[in-house]
Amino acid sequence: MSILEAQLQKEVTRRRTFAIISHPDAGKTTLTEKLLLYGGAIHLAGAVRAKANQRNTTSDWMEIEKQRGISISSSVLQFEYNGYQINLLDTPGHKDFSEDTYRTLTAADAAVMLIDAAKGVEPQTRKLFEVCRMRGIPIFTFMNKLDCPSREPLDLMDELEKVLGIRSCPMTWPIGLGDRFRGVYDRGSSEVLFYQTEGEANVKGRLAPKKVTGMDDPIFAELMGKGDLEEGRLLHDQLKAELELVEIAGDQFDLERVLSGQLTPVFFGSAMNNFGVQRFLDRFIDIAPKPMARETSEGPVEPTDERFSGFIFKIQANMDPAHRDRVAFMRVCSGKFTRNMSARHSRLGKDFKLSKPLHFFAQERVVIEEAWPGDIVGLLDTSGDLRIGDTLCEKGKFEYAGVPRFSPEHFASVQILDPMKRKQLKKGLDQLSEEGVVQVYKQRGFGDKDPVLGAVGALQFEVLQFRLKAEYNVDVKVERMGYLHARWVEGPNFDPDFFERREDSRCLEDRDGLPVLLFKSDWSLRWAEENYKNLKFLKTAPQITGTE
Predict the structure, then answer these.
(1) Per-residue model confidence as pLDDT tens digits over 64-115
(2) Interaxial angle between packed helices 28-38 and 277-287, expressed in degrees from 0 to 180 and rounded to the nearest 10
(3) What are phi and psi of 285, to 5 degrees?
(4) pLDDT of residue 203
(5) Buried b / exposed e across 337-358, counting CB within 10 Å, b at 16+?
(6) Closest listed residue to residue 297, CA positions, set 227, 347, 252
(7) Beta strands in 298-437 (DSSP E)
(8) Nearest alpha-carbon partner for 168 in 83, 89, 268, 85
(9) Which of 478, 385, 383, 357 lies closest to 425 in space, CA to CA?
């Protein structure tokens, strides 16, 4: 075994790269900050608040995020914990930014699904879960807000199977709910973790977990009652009955099923009060997968392959407003990445010198000398040659499976209010579309004049308008258009003029010059599909392969 191969095995083994998915307001940003506290990355966690005088969260760096108190862009947060390198991808929770979440999940090896214990599985959770299922990645579940009025834990477990179709295995179990919440019982270690608010823990000191010999340990009821033995017995009897049901009807922990995405380990706690989070993090690190082989155009590539390779999953313009920079986020997939190395751009067929690689902590950045499989590296892209889905590799010319562009569901025209700033508008639209904020389509024969915008979520248009003003000093008017569907078209004898002449459809071109049809109704799309069997109407953009 070579020295580099031994290094690779060591570094790959100690890396965990994951994303957190949830419905808005389930507590995702709060959980993210509590995890960062354990890594020593921050010393004060501030939850998102509507009041102007509250701290902004560490992971929300964009001005519009701070104003609205929502995450609209994925952040990359990297920290060390117990000898492990943790790469945490903080994703938008709002449904209008699910495309950005999907792109981020392509760079993750696992996902943490955060669920509000009072509300259960909510619509956006379901949508993001399906994205994880498409990728087949392991999913870990954290039931949050157990110290608030909550649904019964058995109901929540049942809903995971009925709504999401995934079996679950509780690793911890709550003792009481809401104002009777006393803590959690760790099924693996037979320990009781006592509930304290974060404020109480800071004043009194964190209570050590109490080891019990089993459900019938006489000290159990005494511990649960907080001085009220009768209350303790009631809670103990309830816990014992629930765990007996779980043992009979529930699934046993099976690492193989977890790693294949068929079984989700479930943890209970309160992110706001920092309860159960550390136990979750410790167990997650033990169970979650290290970086694994990834599929390419030439077959799977192992992370321990000595050839460096990686792919771009995110572009972010203007993270540093003073320098109007453009950063491409790359997931390292194999080999050792070193500063100033050269790598081949598979799509363009030319070599790039990677001279200023960055590690990120929200908006803060540090130039790094090396990175390993599983790490996320920011590359300053002054030339604008890097796109989402591009592959960089040290040797060879393979490409990783592309990051798809989804069919938009909302469309708008954009009108500049000051014609003298048309150049700034083009630059802003080019950069923001490369980030994935919106998709920009050209009208056939019009060039860059009067583009049409497409977005998966309507709120993306507001973000575009805000950022054009804040970052490019361009005021625009965005007017919604009455189209419902966009489809890329492939096949022989396609006549764009025919569809252009119809009242209920329109033919545009995407950034690569590929034809895109817009339809005004479900009926008009079905009519086209039924009457033009020779054509394919695609929901995702065709992949553009390398030029070599």
Answers:
(1) 444 544 433 446 788 889 999 999 987 765 555 556 777 788 899 999 999 9
(2) 80
(3) -60, -35
(4) 57
(5) beeebebbbbbeeeebebeebb
(6) 347
(7) 299-301, 309-317, 326-334, 337-338, 341-345, 350-354, 357-361, 364-367, 370-371, 376-380, 391-393, 410-416
(8) 268
(9) 478
Distance between CA atoms of 279 and 38, rounded to whole angstroms? Answer: 11
Supply 326's token pair: 């453009």
Cα separation, 397 vs 344, whole angstroms: 7
Tell me the residue length of the chain.
548
Q: Which residues contact 545 (CB under 8 A, 6 or more apart)?
A: 297, 347, 399
Residue with tokens 């974060």: 198
Q: What is the pTM of this model?
A: 0.79
Give CA–CA dist 374/329, Å, rounded: 12
- ∠ CA(480), CA(25), CA(439), 5° rounding? 30
Q: Cβ distance 364 to 318 under 8 Å? A: no
Closest CA to 278 of 116, 81, 84, 86: 81
Residue 37 in contact with residue 15, Cβ under 8 Å?
no
Mean pLDDT on 55-64: 46
CA-based nearest residue to 209, from 175, 228, 183, 235: 183
Encode pLDDT of 138-159 as tens digits.
999 999 999 999 999 999 999 9
Extract the runs of DSSP E, i.e. beta strands, from 26-90: 75-81, 84-90
> 402 falls in which pLDDT band (50, 70, 90)?
low
A 10 A CB-CB count for 165 gives 11
**Cα 524 to chain centroid, rounded:** 34
pLDDT by residue (tens digit) across 486-530?
999 999 989 999 998 999 999 999 988 999 999 999 999 999 999
- Cα separation, 504 vs 398, in Å, equals 41
CB count within 10 Å of CB 306 equals 15
> How far apart, in whole angstroms, are the C-alpha atoms of residue 8 and residue 271?
34
